[in-house]
Design brief:
The chain is mostly helical. The protein contains 5 helices and no strands. It has one domain: Ferritin, core subunit, four-helix bundle (Ferritin), CATH 1.20.1260.10. It is 84% helix and 0% strand.
């Protein structure tokens, strides 16, 4: 396998694992711990988008015969630990909600980086249709980050 193929496969596996962790651990925690209805609603909306993204990554894995990773993306571990600390230790609802938004944005930035890299490498490898799908997923991530910014602004102004 060429180094470029290895990079591409590594990015796809990280994105697969990140989307899976987001669905199974992170989003349920964000929804459970958030204190304001608009924030809960915002996190719930991310569930549908993340389900779609996860299905797309699974499709890419199947199409390109990339094995689904069993291991957890270690790049997500610090964020999951941070969420647990927020859940257990933060008592001020406003601060708790802002920390949850910050954690969600850290995940978005990780995914933006991953989708951006995977898109560029897919183009270079000649995976045109896969690159188009990855670009679409990258656009979803940029939109999600924008929505999280809006939630943060609303949360600050409604303290």
């Amino acid at each position: 396998m060429s180094p470029l193929h290895h990079l591409f496969e590594s990015e796809i596996k990280d994105l697969y694992s990140a989307e899976k962790q987001l669905l199974n651990v992170v989003l349920p925690t964000l929804i459970d711990v958030s204190k304001t209805p608009c924030l809960k609603k915002g996190f719930n909306e991310l569930v549908d988008k993340t389900n779609y993204q996860f299905k797309c990554i699974k499709h890419i894995c199947k199409r390109l015969e990339i094995n689904f990773p069993d291991e957890v993306c270690i790049k997500m571990s610090p964020i999951v630990k941070e969420l647990n600390r927020i859940k257990e230790r933060e008592n001020c609802d406003n601060v708790k909600d802002m920390k949850l938004i910050a954690s969600a944005q850290r995940i978005e930035y990780f995914k933006i980086s991953g989708y951006s890299t995977a898109t560029r490498v897919a183009k270079q490898l000649g995976y045109t249709e896969v690159a188009e799908l990855l670009q679409s997923l990258l656009n979803h991530e940029l939109y999600a980050d924008n929505k999280l910014n809006e939630l943060a602004i609303m949360r600050i102004s409604n303290k």
